[in-house]
Amino acid sequence: MFQKFTATSHPDQGPPRLAALREWMAHEGINGFLVPRADRHQGEYVAPCDERLSWLTGFTGSAGFTCVLEHIAGIFIDGRYRVQVRAQVAADFTPVHWPETSLESWLIENTKSGDVIGFDPWLHTEQQITSLQSALREHNVTLRSVANGVDAIWSDRPSPPADKAWAHPPEYAGKSSNEKRKELSQSLQSQGADAAVLTQPDSICWLLNIRGADVPCTPLVQAFAVLHSDGLVALFGDMQKFSDLGTDPQIHQHDWSEFEGYLSRMTGKVIADPSTAPMSVFTALSKGEAKTMRGADPCALPKACKNNVELSGARQAHVSDAQAYVEFLCWCDGQDTKTLTEISIVKKLEQFRREIGNIHDISFETISGSGPNGAIVHYRVTENTDRALDMNSLLLVDSGGQYPSGTTDITRVLPIGVPTDEMKRLFTTVLKGMISVSMLRFPDGIAGAHVDGFARAPLWDLGLDFDHGTGHGVGSFLSVHEGPQRISRISQVPLRPGMIVSNEPGYYREGEFGIRIENILAVQNANPLPGADDRKMLSFETLTLVPIDRRLIMVDLLSPKERDWLNDYHRKIRTTLNGKLSEHAEIWLEDATKPI
Fold first, then answer.
1. pTM over 0.90
2. 592: CB partners within 8 A, 6+ apart
3. Do 454 and 334 have their domain in common?
């Protein structure tokens, strides 16, 4: 529970492990092998036994993959990790800017006719493999399903997680598992489907109202399941994990080893999601009489649209989180910053969260990036990288908590010493984008791609931008990064009432500083306006209740409407947290939220 500061990145170990993998490739008669970050559930957070990419390369980011060929090993990373990867991997691995450079185009450039690329069919989705096969076919480069090469050479691979799962009660979930299964069964019937294969643990945990401890920071139990149109569920996993949950005649438990055989014996029409289910699922279904219907995970959208109980729980979680965070900010302002380090910041923030008393865990490893480390979007401090805070600069702190009632995620930037006017100008520009999204009213049917530009427009006016999405979905005591909803220029999923998303524009100047301001929003029906027509409009409710540092704001750059929003936001924080803080923090908050 809570963050441990072990250094997991060892660039010097990469070359010998890469050599061993190439020996295995030669034995298998293949010219390349794909090593993704994902596990068989395609999750962002994986158990230690599934940290294959990190073990092989030293790279610890939460997204990316490597393709090992006989003469080159490309490690594919997006804009969040381009600084980090250079510090974590040996020169034997070549960073590839992805998705600007696709795996298909890189392979076409670096392979020859007749080459065979191996892949583990449990670690890649059908969509990934069929797309890659299609692109490579005309170049006579083929893909071959093989055993996992990293597993073959990883002699001290950790054991799979074994902690018990527990029930997530209706007072937090808002609906019983039986209610959810009935609703989804009706949905399957309306689609003419007899069953759906579920491979993502957050879907299964949501459907069955259970939680677990199989991966860090996210209360998931790893499992596969098949939901039938009559409400029956076949659950596959380590049965010891479910022994404390009692029995339900509609839930039939099976060991992992029975999953493929079960799929191959199925009949009727079966939904499987080609974007999330492993290739092996489709292979197993094709061996039997079932007709595979390729479609979205039926749990994804209902899970994303929180019910009133979940929304109430999210508000409660954010109040608890705000109590801890304000106490932390108050503490920070009372310290001699010359004595602080990045890790001391992390430990103190987590201490305040623990002292609130109702937190289960942090929701991801806290990011505490001082000065140039703030420009590393997903920087993770370790004992080896810990450093004193940069004076006259910025400290970026991105953190969150897992509370039984909800999941939080917040980023704030703190001034250390006297930041420059340029830092303040850019901070205010980022703030303008964050406020723009927060104030937005938009018609029903608008997707995250349509919202994304509002956060970027103030930066675009200066010829600047940031290389990550504006926002991700957030679960309900589940994954802090939840789909299908997000605010991103590539997201076509309409935003719906009950969805929770982050709002986190930023700006990063490599080698100098980073800025990101993040609040969590809930999509809601907008209040009607005088003279408006009768079309359905949506808006955002801001759930995060932590002040934004006024010392970094150039007030003259804010419009009157933006100032009003900020003052109203700070007023709401004062009102909500009144009586919930220590005396010292109450005084601090009163000053920190004065109108501008």
1. yes
2. 329, 547, 549, 550, 570
3. yes
